[in-house]
Every structure is written in structure tokens, then in C-alpha cells.
Design a protein that fits this description.
Length: 250
């Protein structure tokens, strides 16, 4: 064995292991039907004709089912935090924000009144983790999906509306303050909004409306997820800034 070659190979396998685990997690998110298709094509490498026979459909239909299953898998892979950190998933800040908002929207229940006590409980359990920089992306997705459900319950949630709000704020504030304090800073801002939501369950808002706090909760979660996957440092796309400037009369 040539010196160094075996050592590099071992290191490469070790480095790829987290990616393999991430892919396995994404496959587990598929339905049983789609997992069967992916396994049959990837592991067994069967033909579309044989796949169709196993599924009881025609060869062209089997091909379409394979494409649908792989599209779902591609989506799960694209939204996995580890994979997002390894590959370029977006070219601009707004593109990444849109991906996360769309994903969070898909996770949210149709319409559920916000449970401020549950929000506070999730926050309190996460304090030590965020201080140690070990907070899972699941925290942010859970909080955001609850807020989106609450917005739907109070009149609706718009992916485009959320994107427009975030792009305007990013254009005005820039990267500096968020990058200076990282996820812990976002966590503190989020905590303020959670307390506001809890207090406004029993009293009337005298300044910021209740719904605005819910929108901000979603926005902070999107920003935190972008910090986690490394896309927060991207620049806004020139086209989206130009469109917003024209619409605002600037």
C-alpha cells in the first residue's frame, strides 16, 4: 500500500457518513409507496418494466411514478440542513428565504389557534442548547409552523407576503447585526415576540398588533434557519430589490 492513500480513503468514508445518514433520513420521510420505488430503482436497479409489474401499472406509468418519488426525495434532500450546508442550494438571499418559507408553510397545519404556553415551553427547553450553539433546526421549524397555523386561524398566511416582508427588512437592515450575534441574538428577539403573544392573550395590544408578532415569529425562524445553513450571508437578488423599489415608489 502506498503511504497515505489508505488513510485518505478512510477519512473520505468518515466524512461521507453524515451525508449518507442525511440521505437515509430523507428517504424515511417518503411514503411507504415512494420508498419502495426508490429502493427498487436504486438498490435493486430493476427496469421500469419490472417496476410496473410489481406495482401493477404500465411501464410508462411506472416511469412517471418514479419521477414523482424522486422529485419528493429531491425536495427533502434540498431542505435537509446538513445537505444545504454542503451544496449550493440558492444563489441569492431571497431565493433561500423563499425555499424556507415554502417549506415551513408545507409543515404547518391548516388552521390552529396559537398556543402561547406551548411556544414558551419550547423556548424554555431550548435556552441551554442555543447558548451552547447546539440548537436543532427542528426548534425553528416547530415554532414557525405553529405561528403559520396561528396566522391562518386569524385570517391567512401568504408565502409571498412573508417573502416580501423579509426582503424589505433585509434590504433595510443588512447582514451585520444578525451576523454579529448569530442564532442566540435571533433567539432573544424571538423570545420577546413569544412573550408578547402570551401577554396579548388576555389584553388588548396598545402598540404592535397581535398578528404582526406572529409574522415576526415566522420571520425570525426563517432567518435562524438561513444562519444554520449558511445562506444568510448571501446578497439579495438585484431583480427582487428593483421590483420592491418600483412598487414602493422609491
Amino acid at each position: 500500500m502506498i503511504a497515505g492513500i489508505g488513510e485518505d480513503a478512510v477519512e473520505s468514508v468518515q466524512e461521507l457518513q453524515p451525508i449518507r445518514e442525511a440521505v437515509a433520513q430523507c428517504i424515511e420521510q417518503l411514503s411507504e409507496h415512494d420508498r419502495f420505488i426508490v429502493d427498487a430503482i436504486n438498490s435493486e436497479m430493476i427496469s421500469y418494466e419490472e417496476l410496473g409489474q410489481r406495482l401493477g401499472v404500465s411501464k410508462p406509468h411506472a416511469w412517471r411514478l418514479k419521477n414523482a418519488a424522486y422529485d419528493k426525495l429531491k425536495y427533502f434532500l434540498m431542505m435537509h440542513p446538513l445537505i444545504r450546508r454542503r451544496i449550493q442550494v440558492a444563489d441569492t438571499w431571497d431565493e433561500s428565504a423563499l425555499q424556507w418559507i415554502t417549506h415551513l408553510d408545507s409543515l404547518a397545519k391548516d388552521s390552529v389557534e396559537i398556543d402561547s404556553l406551548k411556544l414558551r415551553s419550547l423556548r424554555d427547553k431550548a435556552v441551554d442548547s442555543v447558548r451552547n450553539e447546539e440548537l436543532s433546526p427542528l426548534f425553528w421549524t416547530s415554532i414557525a409552523s405553529m405561528a403559520i397555523s396561528g396566522l391562518r386561524n386569524k385570517g391567512g398566511f401568504s408565502v409571498q407576503g412573508m417573502l416580501t416582508l423579509l426582503v424589505k427588512k433585509q434590504n433595510d437592515y443588512g447582514h451585520g447585526n444578525i451576523l454579529q450575534f448569530g442564532q442566540f441574538g435571533v433567539f432573544v428577539r424571538l423570545s420577546d415576540k413569544i412573550e408578547r403573544l402570551h401577554n396579548l392573550k388576555s389584553r388588548k395590544a396598545l402598540s404592535e398588533p397581535y398578528l404582526d408578532a406572529l409574522w415576526d415569529v415566522v420571520g425570525y425562524c426563517v432567518v435562524a434557519l438561513m444562519l444554520d445553513d449558511g445562506t444568510f450571508s448571501l446578497e439579495l437578488g438585484e431583480k427582487v430589490v428593483e421590483e420592491l423599489s418600483n412598487n414602493s415608489g422609491v
